[in-house]
Amino acid sequence: MPVLPTRRRGLIAPLTLAVAVLYTGPAAPAAAADEPDWTAAPAAGAAGSARPAFYLAGAPGAVLDDRLTLANPSDRERTLTLRGADAHQAPDGGFAVRPAGATTGAGSWISFGTAATVKIPARTRAVVPFTVTLPPSAQPGDHPAAVVAAEGGRDAAVRIHLRVGGPTLAALTVEDVSVRGRGAGAEVGYTLVNRGNVTLAPGLSLRAEGLFGTLPGRPHRALPVELLPGQRLRLSEPWPGAPLLDAVDLTLDVTAPGAAPASARASVRLAPRWAAAGTGGVLLALGAVTLTVLPRVRGRRTRRDGPGVAGEPVRGAGPTPDHELTRGATT
Q1: pLDDT tens figures, 183-220
Q2: pLDDT (tens digit per residue) in 94-145
Q3: Are residues 177 and 218 located together in one domain of the fold?
Q4: CA torsion sign, 138 to 201 to 255 to 2?
Q5: Fewer CB under 10 Å: which end of the chain, C or N?
Q6: Which CATH number does the domain housing residue 132 bear?
Q7: Can you tell me the distance from the alpha carbon of 265 to that of 175, in angstroms, rounded to the nearest whole number?
Q8: SS3 295
Q9: Whose CA is closest to 247, among 208, 206, 210?
């Protein structure tokens, strides 16, 4: 990860931030109707090149500096409120920020000082400095964060890749493998878990073994997501080689730079819809036959057994003689 030069200060003096306002001149054209009224982005680097995000790193206790560019191409003045925010993994794997009231992590380390509210005249660009103060107790590793500009219900977040110096651990697992759909439309669902303290760029491959040998899987490919530290992400993978009818053992292999490979397995039984419906019909028919035949069998057994206890033969052909106990006569 690229790292910008950083500065470390032993004591943090009261912060006085200046806003550099650069006028483009009255002849600058107004923004088109389909363009945003204002934008936020990292200030250009030392060589004047654009940056997609901020990249900062330092030891616990360090104070890091950078600058945010706010551009107002519209015809009226804009008043923007600036703040830091914690970042987290969105359900679709994207990058999301937490609201101001829920920011308790790295976002709370960000300060714009007296420039937390900035007025930007029409057709003007402002460059606003900010600092990130790493606590002495900050844990090593990546701490996802962002700076957020807001006005009138609209927010614009700019990502900060922030790393605190110290031991790092890259650890990735895959869990909860399942299959939905059939044939070429089948998908394999799974959960990736980042159990380390650095952001991971995972890759995945799929292997499948059926009753009659190896089945088409998926070759290894990089996934279009970044997995943030401590985050869980539910994803799905198309499996066009899935059979219509088979018993399959699936194996998902995942990798990430610096992390040990991980695997997860699942056994699935695949059947087309007509086969499942046919099986249900057969079971219903067998149940109907059983209910019809069983009473007849019981009736036959009762008639065959005759009177008495069912299933016990009657001994003797005639009536059973009565036995009377009498006192013997004296002759």
Answers
A1: 888 999 999 999 999 999 999 999 999 999 999 999 99
A2: 899 999 889 999 999 999 998 899 999 999 999 999 999 999 999 999 999 9
A3: yes
A4: negative
A5: C
A6: 2.60.40.10
A7: 9
A8: helix
A9: 210
Give the residue from 189, 222, 226, 88 showing the smallest Cα distance to 144: 88
Range of the domain at 32: 20-164
At which of 273, 293, 319 does a domain end? 273
What number of CA atoms fall less than 13 Å from residue 234's CA on the CB side? 6
Are residue 140 and residue 254 in the same domain, yes or no? no
β-pair partners for 146: 85, 159
Residue 142 counted as domain residue = yes
Asked whether residue 32 falls in the same domain as residue 152, the answer is: yes
**Could you tell me the sign of the dihedral formed by the alpha carbons of 227, 230, 234, 237, in that order?**
positive
Q: How far apart are CA 202 and CA 197, in angstroms?
A: 14
Task: Quickly list DSSP for 31-49.
Answer: PPTTS-S-EEEEPP-TTS-
Contact call for residues 261 and 174 (beta carbons, < 8 A): no
User: What is this structure's pTM?
Assistant: 0.71
- In sequence order, what are the residues at sequence separation of 6 or more whose Cβ sits closer than 8 angstroms to the Cβ of residue 219? 205
User: How far is Cα 54 from Cα 42, in angstroms, rounded to an integer?
Assistant: 6
